[in-house]
Amino acid sequence: MAASREREKLHTELQAERELRKKLNDKVSDQQDRIEIMIQKEEQLKREMAALMQMRNSCVEELKVTNHQLEQNLVMKTRELALANEKAENQWRLINAIDREAEEIDSKVNETRMLLESKEKQAAELESKLNKFLTWDMEVIALMLMML
Question: Which residues form a coiled coil (predicted)?
């Protein structure tokens, strides 16, 4: 009887060990599955990051092109305004003797100056917005790099 009890006890322990081993194997399998999922997520995030970096680089290049165009436009407008100002001064000297024509030219010069100030203000606002965007873009990139 003692041997039978001992055998039954050992059999029970063996069964308990098998159940524990199965649970442990299940947990290991679950962890391996989780690791595989995390690896897949990491790869996906890397692909997304690469795509975002490509988009960022494209945006930066587009902004460089746009900025260059704006600078060229500003130079051209400055030249045009310098020529317009020179013409206005020449007309002012020629027409100074005639009050009525002088008043008309004075009015035109004032309109041109107000338009110039408006355009300069718009250009300054656009430059400010561009600087804010570039600063924000760098901050976003820095944050994204810190997240890695």
Answer: 7-129
